[in-house]
Structure formats: structure tokens, C-alpha cells
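Here is one chain, start to finish.
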Amino acid sequence: MQKPSKLAVCLLASVLFSAPLMAAEKAFVTVNGVAVPNSLANLLIAEKKAQGMQDSPELATTVREEIIRRALLVEQAKKAKLDKTPLVAAQMEAARQNALIGAYLQEYVNKNPVTEAQMKKRYEDLKTRFGDTEYKLRHILVASENEAAGIIAEIKQGSKFEDLVKKSIDPSAKNTNGDLGWNSPSNFVKPFGDALTKLKKGEYTETPVRSEYGYHVIWLDDTRPLSFPAFDEVKPRLEQQIQTQGISKVVEELRAKAKVQ
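Its structure:
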């Protein structure tokens, strides 16, 4: 038998630990005088269906037996006053908060549906941002401008980039030899991306490129046309990104107004 999610178990416990909840709601089952509401049974049934179980009388029976067994265990836990311990109380409160937050966010999504126009605008913005070219590059990162200038001088004198990359302070340089693979300039901080687009295949930056991370020497290995996915392919991701952005804005506004002591 598949186990219910941790959240479902916590919600079940919170219902059975607490005072009579949703008293007006019809009971799915009553165990030793404690009524378990239909809504909780429906939650567990929906969860199991999402896991691949077929909707059937057998599924309802399985959920019923599961709820009965758990109700009996919760009853014993209450007798042992485990619901009064700080850890269990905190877990139950966290489950309650998760349920409320989930309901609030779902209500926000329902009331603020993402339009086709919003998705198309974001799609075009992304196409503009990423451009039509990808760049295959390597780089060396050092702490000072003088160090970067010295590395550039060594390259001009015939030193191999592969040898000089050992001086890089980029943590990944040891494993990648400074190779950053194929990328769009928009994936990098602006000074880095701007310098990259000025290079031609086989060229390197002849002056140090300063960023918030230090000073870079960039070597361009190759370029190729960027194949951007079709709008219909990325619509679900665009919708999710816009929803996430909207939710983040709501949270930021609430945080700005909150009185926190």
C-alpha cells in the first residue's frame, strides 16, 4: 500500500488532535466518537489518484481503512499527551500554515490568470535578451587588473591559454580549464557579456574585463546561430514564470508593509 504524503498525515493528525472541526460537514467515518470529515477523505483519495491509483470502490475502502488505523494511532498519541509536546505542536502548525498558504496562492492564481498576450510579450522579451547567437568561450578570472594584464601579455608572447588558466580564481576552473561552454551573453554580468559580443572567433580580450567578481580574460572559441524554441513549446514555462513573478511581487509588498519586531 502506498504511503500518504507527510503533509496529508500532518493534516489528518491536526484534524484528529484538535477540537471538532467542520462540525457541520458530513463525517466520512467516525472512530471512537471522533468524526473524520469527508473533505479529508477526499484529499487522500485525490492524492492517491494523482499517484496513479484508479478511482474505484476499492480505493474508497483503502482510504477508509487507512483513516481508521491512523485515527486509532492518533487517539493513542493524544492519550500520551504527545500533541502537547513542542515538536509535535510545531509540526501540526507547519502543516496548517502550508495548507493555508497553498490555498491562498491557488486563489491568487485563479483570480489572476496569465493571458496569451502576457506570455507572448515575455517570449519576445526573452528572444531579444538572448539574441540570435551563442558563444563558446573560456575565461580566466583573477583578483587584480595587473594580474589580468600580465596574463594578456603572456598570451601575446605565445603562452597557451590552457596553461595560464591555472592562475584563475574561479573555483570551477580546475575541472573545466576555464571552459564556459555554449552560452548567450545575457547569461553573464553585463561587462562580461558586452566584451564577449565584441570578439570574433579565436580572439581574446586584450584589456582586462572588470566585473563584480574580479578581472576577466575572455577567449572566444566559436559562435553559432541560437535556435530559440517555438512559443508553443515554452508556453507552460512562461505561464509559470509570470505566475511566480506575480506571487513574488505580492509577498514583497506584504513584507514591505509588515510590522516585524
